[in-house]
């Protein structure tokens, strides 16, 4: 084993440990790994930056813009709201939801679809007295099953396609994957509406729990008008001057003055006599506030989260995304209130409320924040990829007369480009480029909106992972790993190789990310195919589907993360419902690959 191979192994192992332990954002971890391989001379400058100009990576960027344009049009919301209608039975409604979602996810990035539909499904569930936990995991899983059907169904497919082209292979056509994945998707959907449905929990959401247990979230203090012997020392002082910032364990979230609600509360907000100060946080620590001269604890308060949301504000739940700039920062340091016009009422992680001072909570992917949002929240949140809004911010104007023309124009343009790709008139990259240009020219989406929809953190991760994968090829590390894989699976023949390769891929996907998992397994799959003298396409398709078939945890795939908090799920729920589905997809994929290519 050469020093280059050994060093590459060490870098990859450290990278994976950091990704699993979430020591920083995934894109930064993989970029640092790439930098270390470049600095030590294992990768040349050309090899290190090759991923940043890779066709697959650039197509992913274009797909983000296209998905954003379709999301903006409201077509998906309109279609699903129409299809759901009134509930005849839960399972019938589930079928009406999952089939079109799977179809739509085959041609659009599935993450924005799930983000868009989560609040709609929650609202529909509430209106029909159904727990959203019966629908949200199936929503995520159906979008994943749709994503493995076509080349553009998910970014992972395009990433592997780009790697194949880079290695001089032919790459995927639009429907190459469908020959293997269509049977898996059909069987998966049947499972979700039958046995899988029985395994789904029946939970209340955080919003419902918070509304019913407001006294566990809020405490009210009154600013005394006639403080004994002296004027009240708090009156006419700003919140900061009064020492009501940085309190131990509690957080001033709102002020009620003459019936008017003021939130989020700014540092410069002045306190007046008879103000009602609403605190949240670790309410057992309210004694520190009670000791302040000029404040009196109000017992039997009528103010709840529901009453606070009336007026200009709303109670909103958001889920912190993998690419958020808020990750691994304290809420206090992120200037959350000023940035988003919203105060944090509570933070939930792993289905449990974090019982500590809100300002000191360090945010992680999947954290669900309960916000008391001001009037500017909607506009500010739309300009950010820091979190997914999973409750309706306002009633969505589904499709008004002017929007309808643009909406159908955007859908028809995309459909036309897909047809051109299907008949090999255009490459996928050219078709997506033309589609984006048409959207911009006809003002389906503005340049600023297009920029907001591009997830640069995801692109950095993909481009950096390309370089790490190249290092595995170049140093012989991939060849060595392929030899070990073949050695382990030798007693079980060709089927054993396929099963082990698939298991390694889904393990990496669940532990790190789907794109990084696919890139790391790609060189191993190619070397394993070469060793056996088999068509590399069989092995590459196997890892492509395995990298996207993430059903076992909320952290392996973005759509699973989106529904984690809104469904009130526990980690075990994904394992319980997802393990049988994962086995169905794996067995079907292995059988189809073996039948068609080997």
TrEMBL record:
Give the RCK C-terminal domain ranges.
204-295, 303-387
Q: Which organism is it from?
A: Aquibacillus albus
Q: State the InterPro entries in the record.
A: Cit_transptr-like_dom, DASS-Related_Transporters, Na/sul_symport_CS, RCK_C, RCK_C_sf
Q: Which Pfam families match?
A: CitMHS (PF03600), TrkA_C (PF02080)
Designated name of the protein: Di/tricarboxylate transporter
Keyword check for Signal: no
Keyword annotations: Membrane, Repeat, Transmembrane, Transmembrane helix, Transport
Where does the chain cross the membrane?
6-23, 28-45, 57-85, 97-121, 141-160, 172-193, 409-442, 454-473, 485-504, 537-557, 577-597
- What's its membrane topology? Multi-pass membrane protein
Location(s), subcellular? Membrane
């Amino acid at each position: 084993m050469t020093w280059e191979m050994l060093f590459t192994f060490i870098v990859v192992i450290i990278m994976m440990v950091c990704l699993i332990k979430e020591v920083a954002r995934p894109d930064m971890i993989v970029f640092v790994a790439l930098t270390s391989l470049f600095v030590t001379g294992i990768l040349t400058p050309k090899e290190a930056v090759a991923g940043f100009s890779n066709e697959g990576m650039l197509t992913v960027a274009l797909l983000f813009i296209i998905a954003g344009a379709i999301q903006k049009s409201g077509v998906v919301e309109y279609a699903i709201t129409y299809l759901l209608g009134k509930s005849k039975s839960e399972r019938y409604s589930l079928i009406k939801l999952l089939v079109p979602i799977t179809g739509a996810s085959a041609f659009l990035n599935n993450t924005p679809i799930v983000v868009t539909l989560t609040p709609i499904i929650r609202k529909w569930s509430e209106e029909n007295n159904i727990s959203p936990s019966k629908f949200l995991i199936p929503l995520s899983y159906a979008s994943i099953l749709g994503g493995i059907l076509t080349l553009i169904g998910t970014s992972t497919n395009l990433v592997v396609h780009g790697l194949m082209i880079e290695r001089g292979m032919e790459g995927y056509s639009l429907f190459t994957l469908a020959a293997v994945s269509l049977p898996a998707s059909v069987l998966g959907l049947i499972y979700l509406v039958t046995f899988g449905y029985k395994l789904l929990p029946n939970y209340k959401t955080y919003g419902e729990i918070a509304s019913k247990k407001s006294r566990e979230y809020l405490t009210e203090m009154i600013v005394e008008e006639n403080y004994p012997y002296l004027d009240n020392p708090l009156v006419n002082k700003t919140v900061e001057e009064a020492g009501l910032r940085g309190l131990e364990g509690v957080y001033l979230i709102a002020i009620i003055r003459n019936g008017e609600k003021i939130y989020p509360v700014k540092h410069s907000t002045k306190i007046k006599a008879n103000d009602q100060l609403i605190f949240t946080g670790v309410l057992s620590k309210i004694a520190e506030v009670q000791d302040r001269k000029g404040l009196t604890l109000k017992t039997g308060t009528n103010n709840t989260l529901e009453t606070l949301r009336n007026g200009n504000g709303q109670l909103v739940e958001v889920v912190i995304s993998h690419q958020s700039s808020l990750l691994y920062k304290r809420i206090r340091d992120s200037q959350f209130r000023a940035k988003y016009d919203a105060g944090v009422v509570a933070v939930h992680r792993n289905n449990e409320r974090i019982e500590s001072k809100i300002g000191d909570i360090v945010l992680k992917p999947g954290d669900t924040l309960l916000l008391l949002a001001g009037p500017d929240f909607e506009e500010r949140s739309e300009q950010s990829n820091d979190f997914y809004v999973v409750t309706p911010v306002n009633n969505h104007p589904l499709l008004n007369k002017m929007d309808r023309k643009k909406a159908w124009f955007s859908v028809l343009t995309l459909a036309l480009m897909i047809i051109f790709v299907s008949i090999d008139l255009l490459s996928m990259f050219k078709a997506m480029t033309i589609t984006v240009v048409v959207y911009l020219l006809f003002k389906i989406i503005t340049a600023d909106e297009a920029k907001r929809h591009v997830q640069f953190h995801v692109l950095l991760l993909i481009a950096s992972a390309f370089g790490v994968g190249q290092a595995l090829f170049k140093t012989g590390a991939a060849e060595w790993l392929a030899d070990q894989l073949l050695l382990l699976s030798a007693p079980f023949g060709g089927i054993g190789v396929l099963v082990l390769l698939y298991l390694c891929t889904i393990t990496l996907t669940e532990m790190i990310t789907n794109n990084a998992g696919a890139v790391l397994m790609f060189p191993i799959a190619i070397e394993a195919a070469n060793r056996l003298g088999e068509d590399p396409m069989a092995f590459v398709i196997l890892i492509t589907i395995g990298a996207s078939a993430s059903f076992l945890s909320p952290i392996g795939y973005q759509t699973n993360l989106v529904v984690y908090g809104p469904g009130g799920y526990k980690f075990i729920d994904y394992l319980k419902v997802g393990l049988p589905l994962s086995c169905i997809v794996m067995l079907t994929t292995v059988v189809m690959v073996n039948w068609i290519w080997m």
